[in-house]
Amino acid sequence: MTTKKMHAIDALHEAQKLAFSPLFFQAVLTIRNLGILDYIFDKDGQATIEDIVRDLGLSDYGVRLLVEAAESAGALSVNEAGLLEVTKTGFFILKDRMTQVNFNFVQDVCYEGARVLEDCVKNGKPEGLKVFGNWPTVYEGLSQLPDRVKKSWFEFDHFYSDNAFPSALKIVFDPKPAYIFDIGGNTGKWSMLCCEYDPDVRVKILDLPGQLAVSRENARQRNLLERIDFHQINLLDTSQKVPQGADVIWMSQFLDCFAVEEIVAILKNVCQAANQNTRIYILEPFFDNQKYAAAKHSLIGTSLYFTTIANGNSKMYSVEVMKNLVSQAGLVVSQEYPLLDGSYHTLLECRKT
Amino acid sequence: MTTKKMHAIDALHEAQKLAFSPLFFQAVLTIRNLGILDYIFDKDGQATIEDIVRDLGLSDYGVRLLVEAAESAGALSVNEAGLLEVTKTGFFILKDRMTQVNFNFVQDVCYEGARVLEDCVKNGKPEGLKVFGNWPTVYEGLSQLPDRVKKSWFEFDHFYSDNAFPSALKIVFDPKPAYIFDIGGNTGKWSMLCCEYDPDVRVKILDLPGQLAVSRENARQRNLLERIDFHQINLLDTSQKVPQGADVIWMSQFLDCFAVEEIVAILKNVCQAANQNTRIYILEPFFDNQKYAAAKHSLIGTSLYFTTIANGNSKMYSVEVMKNLVSQAGLVVSQEYPLLDGSYHTLLECRKT
């Protein structure tokens, strides 16, 4: 329903849905976590509140509360005989991996800290991160987060980064590069995939010391230390230059961790390291070229995580904004590969102008 | 859109809206609190992000983030020229008193504590209340809550209780009662209205000592001490009996503060105090006979507040459940007055069987 055509009474309903949404979020999460949604799904339209109370050992009060809330949130339906059924929305909440990952990430990583979003916007700092510790950004604190928070963080991070890689490999290796620089290579996942994909390629991972330690250990376990180099660099320090010599410079879900001015500085740094033949790749989930509204909404929600928890100054970008930053850095987009493999990611191939 | 007819892709979107809803709640609240929504409304379709940054002195990053989030939440629309407009939903968020009251109540009173809803359901206790203090229920702690929390609590409480009273007075005073018992009379608002409505009526407020102190002071200021009696009672202690002698026994938004077993005990206590001519009134916003989906949703959201913050065992009830409790207590509903004055409240008139 477009907003122009929306009746006032429906808009009032939408406004109340927003106003009470944190409470319904908790209700839906709880009815999932307590196994109630699963129970109703298994009973295939035959479950009653009394069944749940008896079989799951929960209070009548609690089950009734959660069923009423989940029905109002659209995750359950209750027919006139009091029989419960999981709706399509409820099915995704119960069974869809992306939805599970998103719920856990929002509850464990974002919920508490997001309360101070207003302060984050005013101060340009991730004030919500203080619920976990006193680090300038989440990246410094990642290894010290409570286990459950860390688990939800990594599951979210990995879920969104991996599925574009198979198609991206084909593009990057046609024509074959001899030397790839993986900027912000993190755990080394992409670099190791490159080594597996092409037995001749060499890779250099450029990252902060903590990340390099992790990727070096991962490379060691896969016997790839002879083919992967490790280059310590802090790209927020513009005096530290990206070295020359790459055929391909690769940045996957890296630039969204920075503010626009920082992105321009990083891309300028990349530009000085490139020559006319260097292919520079930016892999990002841009929110404005998604096929589904669900994906766009999730990406914009992820921006709010960056503001409140991650670093206070980065976000998910639109492809138009990113192209503008590319051009400010003296680069030009030579090719655009949208939504690789049905993933959320677009690959931009850039060249030095 | 009914869930049966919903396309899977729309259901996936709904599921992601739920998953990220606490973040979008914060974004919408922040864009309201920082005056951005108001600014866009005043500019009547002509505001740009650049205007807001300049005129409100906020960062380009912060404004862009909030505008993208508010658009995705349905509170704003952005046209192809980058001009911003407040949607109908956004209009209610900005201007509608109920929506304002609900947002403030959820943020200030409920948000932080609601995070532990799962524990509340398991333990039957308002575990979320611990973010404010170690009281068994919110009622003991009300006077000690931080000012902003207290303000949001009372604004919410008053907003929903007052608008049904004018119609209710006409019903209760036809025929004229000589003596009204106001059970759970709280600040004495209803009792004082009765005294103003009919110069002959006497009222007895029955409540806990703290509430009686407040209502006595209010009655004193209005010179009503000669017409209002004060009777200290804890209705959770079944040995404390409601006295006899009332023509009308009145309970307004009182029973929703108790669990079903407690409600039956209270109604039995009322029953023993009544004779065949005593009219017993229950005024409640029942969630299942609301005219608008917005109201039903808000009431069910309010149940989640009772679970996490108020007392851990009460909720908003359906009229069917309440009638069943009335009957268990030996009473019968003799009249039902739904949605008084276009309010959310239904008045049940009960008699001893």
The largest pleated sheet of chain A is described as: 7 strands, mixed
Radius of gyration of chain A: 23 Å
CATH class of the largest domain in chain A: Alpha Beta
Work out the helicity level of chain A: 40-55%
So what's the overall shape of chain A?
elongated
Oligomer state of the chains in this structure: homodimer
Mean pLDDT rating of chain A: 95
How many distinct beta strands of chain A? 9
Low-pLDDT residue spans of chain A: none
Percent of residues in beta strands of chain A: 5-15%
Count every helix of chain A, treating DSSP H or I runs of 4 or more residues as helices: 16
The largest beta-sheet of chain A arranges its strands as 5-4-3-6-7-9-8
**Largest interface, counted by CB within 8 Å of the partner chain's CB:** A-B, 84 and 84 residues
What does this structure look like?
The structure is a homodimer of 353-residue chains. Chain A is 50% helix and 13% strand. Chain A has 353 residues and is of the alpha/beta class. In chain A, strands 5-4-3-6-7-9-8 form a 7-stranded mixed beta sheet, with helices on both faces. In chain A, strands 1-2 form a two-stranded antiparallel sheet. The longest helix of chain A has 18 residues, at 97-114. The first copy, chain A, is elongated. The interface between A and B is large, with 84 and 84 residues.
